[in-house]
Design a protein that fits this description.
Number of strands: 6
Bound molecules: guanosine-5'-triphosphate, magnesium ion
Number of domains: 2
CATH class of the largest domain: Alpha Beta
Helix content: 40-55%
Strand content: 5-15%
Number of helices: 9
Strand order of the largest sheet: 2-3-1-4-5-6
Order of helices and strands: HHEHEEHEHEHHHEH
Length: 295
């Protein structure tokens, strides 16, 4: 009874024209947006920056790219033995996703968001670092698969690169199809056709078509291998096991990166070079734009 009485007294006072009630109401209405903004802003700020993952065969230029994006200049590198992470910031030359509708003449400063770039070793025996980072609980914001555009002109180099890329794309595809909701499972992939400065390097469109052709061979031989080894049988085909191990559009004759869109993996192939001769050094503008688009 005493409780309801005191509420009644309080309500009577709150709705009365008393000056103290008006001041308190005014203070509440003025301060509450400020307080809500403060809490929301603090929450947004305390979030860890998103992570982009660098993967690709050994010698493709992942560590060189990491040092260039983090420090502005590429440093000399050695074959990586363990993963490393660096904090990077989008340069003002690249527009972040949130700034994409800004007018060219808008002079207020761009947001220049920060992100983490995580380098993984490309050596065959150390690729579990890359695969666990992709299939682990905390998904990366995007994957940058670095390719040596000169190495893919040789049969062996092309086969190694395509096989690794096939496995990475299949992991991402499985992550997407096995997820209960599609939220956070659409991980875009940038195939960074690096070393465009090298005389023997293939142009970007050729890097793309050769990789697509070779990935097609990999998925054919993997599916044949499953059937031949007895791991998969006719029942598996019916149950969809074979289908879930097939990259891209199931049963399609030719593989293309666009098929990955259906599986929540947007693949872009863009060229550049981390190091090179003086006037062409550090041509990574298209890659920065891709990072900005996906931040
Ligand atoms: N010409 C040229 N050389 C490059 C370019 N990018 C990287 N390199 C060279 O390629 C070599 C290998 O680069 P790394 O960055 O160590 O390669 P990585 O992908 O980290 O290799 P792992 O750590 O073994 O997986 C280095 O000698 C780089 O200087 C480029 O754009 N052009
Ligand atoms: Mg390295």
């Amino acid at each position: 009874m005493a409780g309801s009485n005191s509420i009644e007294v309080w309500m009577t006072w709150a709705f009365s024209p008393a000056i103290s009630a008006i001041i308190v109401t005014l203070l509440i209405s003025l301060l509450s947006p400020v307080i809500i903004h403060y809490f929301l802003y603090r929450k947004a700020n305390s979030k860890e920056p998103p992570t982009f993952l660098l993967v690709g065969p050994s010698g493709a230029g992942k560590t060189s790219l990491l040092t260039l994006l983090a420090n502005g200049t590429p440093s000399p590198t050695h074959t990586s033995q363990s993963p490393t992470t660096a904090l990077c910031q989008l340069p003002s030359s690249a527009k972040a996703r949130e700034d994409r509708y800004r007018s060219e003449h808008d002079t207020t400063s761009l947001s220049r968001p920060k992100f983490l770039l995580s380098d993984t070793p490309g050596h065959g025996k150390l690729r579990h670092h890359a695969t666990t980072a992709i299939s682990g609980p905390k998904a990366p914001k995007g994957v940058i698969f670095v390719v040596d555009s000169a190495a893919v002109s040789s049969t062996a180099g092309l086969a190694e690169t395509a096989e690794f890329l096939h496995d990475i794309l299949l992991l991402l595809q499985k992550r997407h199809t096995q997820a209960k909701t599609s939220k956070g499972t659409e991980i875009p992939v940038l195939v960074a056709a690096n070393k465009q400065d090298v005389f023997t390097s293939l142009p970007v469109n050729l890097v793309q078509s050769r990789l697509e052709g070779e990935i097609d061979k990999v998925r054919q031989s993997r599916s044949k291998g499953l059937l031949d080894s007895g791991v998969a049988n006719e029942d598996d085909v019916i149950n969809g096991d074979e289908e879930s191990n097939w990259l891209g559009e199931y049963g399609s004759k030719e593989f293309s990166f666009t098929q990955m869109g259906e599986h929540g993996v947007d693949v872009k192939v863009l060229g550049g070079n981390v190091v090179g001769n003086d006037e062409k050094a550090g041509q990574v503008g298209e890659w920065w734009d891709w990072i900005g688009d996906n931040l």
